[in-house]
Design goal:
about 150 residues; globular; Immunoglobulin-like; four-stranded antiparallel sheet; five-stranded mixed sheet; mainly beta
Length: about 150
């Protein structure tokens, strides 16, 4: 099974900067399993991704350092996909069960959006579609066969 996060970043108004984005998975105890994507510009503004930043303070060092391997620059308006193969930060497959998937988007001098959904990773396909908001024109979590 594979989880795909689909996100379409909205076109900003005026001269707004590109948003920061974080996508990650937490276990039922709210411990981070893995950061899937981290798009940012300047490190000093990472705190604007409030929920992801909180998760990093509570994460084991190996999980927090995993964020460096999935980091990249911010992205402009458009459609993007982020895949999760079901592995934790150390490369081991997680056990079947319920996990919470997060997608957080924050723009400097703009809005803050946090979308999340608990998904039972048990080989039963599932799709969750979120309502559009000021930063995201569309977003969905799609748990499906490879």
């Amino acid at each position: 099974m594979l989880l795909t996060i689909h996100v379409e970043i909205a076109r900003p108004f005026g001269f707004a900067k590109r948003p920061y984005l974080a996508a990650w998975v937490e276990d039922p105890n709210r411990a981070e399993v893995r950061t899937l994507a981290l798009w940012y510009g300047k490190q000093r503004y990472l705190e604007d991704l409030r929920a992801w930043f909180r998760a990093q303070r509570n994460a084991p060092v190996q999980v927090a350092s995993n964020a460096n391997s999935v980091s990249s620059a911010t992205r402009g308006p458009g459609k993007y996909s982020i895949d999760w193969d079901g592995k934790d930060a150390s490369g081991k497959y997680v056990k079947a069960g319920k996990y919470t998937v997060y997608l957080e988007v924050a723009r400097e001098h703009g809005s803050y959006q946090l979308m999340h959904q608990e998904i039972d990773f048990n080989d039963t396909p599932k799709q969750v579609v979120f309502k559009p908001n000021t930063e995201v024109d569309s977003a969905s979590f799609d748990y499906h066969q490879r």
